[in-house]
Amino acid sequence: MLHIVNGDTVGEKLRGNVPGDILVWREIYSDGPIFIDPTEERSRMLRARYLERTMGIPASEYARMCEEQERELSRCRQHEEIVLWFEHDLFDQTMLCYLLHRFARQPLERTRLSLVCIGAFPGLEPFRGLGELSSDQLSALMSSREPVGGDVLALGSALWEAYASSAPSPLLELLQGDTAALPYVQEAFRLHLSRFPSTRNGLGIVEQTTLERVREGASDPLKLFAEVGRQLHGLGMGDLSYWHCLARMSQGAYPLFHIEGIRRFPSYREPEPSFRQCTVVLTETGNRVLSGETDWVELNGIDEWYGGIQLQGHAVPWRWDPHEGRLVKR
After folding, report:
1. Do 169 and 73 lie in a common domain?
2. If you average pLDDT over residues 280-284, what whole number do you get?
């Protein structure tokens, strides 16, 4: 067996408790530029440069890691069975869809493909992810794994291509159709769409939630990450992703808040937070944006990726309408 898992924590808990080898898939497909074939050299380097600039992940290290895990994946037919272990959030669902896209185009011949994918677990409320489970609880899930059929492969592959598209229409069309073969993709990808700048004030769901918590009195960056992560647990957002979001919000010509006492933001190379004694303070711009008096994108501009879509400048074509709950074109 080969078990492909979503993180080192799950990998370590499974190792020695289930038969077979463990491949930890290390990627953050919920962030940065996404391409249908991320193994193509130009696509990989664009992605590597983004992750180095925003999270401090060295481009050379990222490229080496990608090459190693893709090489391991290319040998998957040596195994009798491959088991995919994922959970309900966007972080995992994008990863699952990429792997299903790969397997849809890489005939497995006699190798069986199975899936363990859950969105809840008895006694854990709210359920945040597989990493919360013990080794015994995880290994017990083996008996619930289901074979991956052609409908699952086809839907996962189509979703990956839609997510990597430079226009939102393919993803919107898929989400309007039957996605029952992958029961968690509806909620995960709709939450992805809510990250786009809103029609109300130019803030995505992460920025909006952060400013609301600050206005309510949260001023510690570490507690902000915990509170926002708890409220938006369906994103599966990691700390490096959130620090990048905080950096964008606190910088530029019109910052939404100041972080008093900060020396540097944590990064992949220097993960220890340097802002344990820092305080987040709303600016006048932050108050005006939060109240809907002004639009942050029109004021400050944007240069961000949402799957395969790059939004740049002070006037962007796609916005999330929080009242209608849908993406609209301006």
Report:
1. yes
2. 96
DSSP string across 236-303: ---HHHHHHHHHHHH-SSS-SEEEET------SSS-S-S-TT-EEEE-HHHHHHHTTSS-HHHHH-EE
Task: Give the domain range for residue 267.
Answer: 194-329
- Picking from 128, 133, 139, the residue whose alpha carbon sits closest to that of residue 83 is 139
Strand pairing class (318-321; 326-329): antiparallel
Interval 49-76: pLDDT, tens: 999 999 999 999 999 999 999 999 989 8
Look at residue 273 and tell me whether its pLDDT is greater than 70.
no
Residues 176 and 48 in one domain: yes
Per-residue pLDDT band for 266 (boundaries 50, 70, 90) equals confident
Q: Are residues 82 and 35 in the same domain?
A: yes
DSSP assignment, residue 309?
Answer: E
Same domain, 176 and 213: no
The whole-chain average pLDDT of the chain stands at 94
DSSP label of 25: -
Asked if residues 257 and 280 have their Cβ atoms less than 8 Å apart, the reply is yes
33 preceded by a cis bond (ω within 30 of 0): no
Report how far residue 219's alpha carbon sits from residue 211's, in angstroms, rounded to the nearest whole number: 10
Region of 269 please: left (phi>0), alpha (psi -120 to 50) or beta: alpha
Total domain count, the chain: 2
Greater model confidence, 183 or 127:
183
pTM: 0.95
CATH number at residue 154: 3.40.50
Both tokens of 91, joined, read: 């972080």
Q: Which helix (H) or strand (E) holds 87?
A: strand 81-87
Residues 162 and 236 in one domain: no
